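look at this:
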Amino acid sequence: MLNISYNPFSPGRIPPEFGNLTNLEILWLTKCNLVGEIPDSLGRLKKLTDLDLANNHLVGKIPSSLTELVSVVQIELYNNSLTGELPRGFSNLTKLRLLDASMNQLTGMIPDELTQLPLESLELYQNNMEGTLPLSIADSPALYELVIFENRLTGELPQNLGKNSPLRWLDVSSNHFTGPTPSSLCEKGNLEALLMTNNSFSGQIPSTLADCQYLEVLNLGNNKINDTFPIWLGTLPQLKVLVLRRNYFHGQIIHSENEPGLSTLRILDISHNKFSGFLPSTYFKSFQGMMNSSGIPLQYIEYYDYHGTDPLLVTLKGVDINFGTILTIFTTIDIDMSSNKFEGEIPEIVGNLFSLKVLNFSHNKLTGHIPSSFGNLKALESLDLSSNKLVGEIPTQLAGLNFLEVLNLSQNQLVGLIPLGNQFSTFSNDSYGGNLGLCGFPLSKRCGLDEPVTPIFHEEIDSAFGLDWKLFVMMGYGCGMVCGFFEKNSIV
């Protein structure tokens, strides 16, 4: 075994002489400030079982000699600047179980011969790979991790994907995939994360996803799915993240108190669709994961110590803010139902979601008053109720929200005195624009007086509406990216 990983050497090349260590079984050179190309001589290491060259500055093509490592079980090349296509000859690697060449500049198609291997994990995300996903990948009997987001892949997913593979993590986001969502994804019942955002998937969500009893994250945002709200998702006992934003979902969300109600949910984003009717108060009553987040086990983040995954977007003041990686899901609790056609009053029960950090009901047709129960949302950091038809005064209880960094109540029909003190002293005119009946700081309109006062404008508008807040939210989970299902010596 040769392990010199995580040593900040001066930039240097991999010594070709390493190829003379013909009895070497493990070669770990991750994060050693390596430059240049991978030497062909490494192909002589016939006893090598684990090759890790990740997190360096390697360039050039992946040498075809690596396909001669007949004993190799793991190959990790991620986070370099490798180019060209994956070499032919992978069918020689009959023991290969993990291949990670993510975060490079690879091109070409995913070789069909990879599907002939006993692969358990295939990670090729953040490259420039093209073409369709090999149909034969659905026949991989051991594959439980397929992560290929941020490429240029096209076509449909194999419709029997998941039928023969024990898939646990599937991430095909940010490609150019089309067609329906495969109905067989949960045939083995193991799926824990399904991420298909930023493609052109269409049709309806297959009801067979109700078989995914371990599913924790479902992100279908930014597609062309045309469906009503999938009430049956309430039967999933582990679901913590549900993102359906920017699709063609429509109709009312009608949920009975006798039906399962997504009790473990921590993020709900159904924004930018065509949902209508009243806000689903019975769902809000069932969101136990938002009432007491400390009681919800964080199995997902503990198990998936992952070195790369999709960004999570949240809409603030009409702008999509990148929340960072999906690992953020356990540091924020978020409801975004903006840009739909919801009407009626905001249910008081929303004020019982004590752990809520982000609440966005903007750009709907909501009426009535802002619930005074919102004063109970002590963890709230962003509140956007803009572009509705809300009336009455701003509840004074909101002044007690000490963590509130973002407030947008503009374009409603609110009246009366703006609450004073605490965070309300930091909000600018933009938070209240279009409410002609409001008065008091920071507006120029005084309450009950004729003389104007100088309005307060914040020069750093971005800071007031999300950037500083975003950084605040992202503290605590870090920005490091580590390696998925596999850790060293995880394969036996």
User: Anything to note?
Assistant: The chain has five helices and 34 strands.
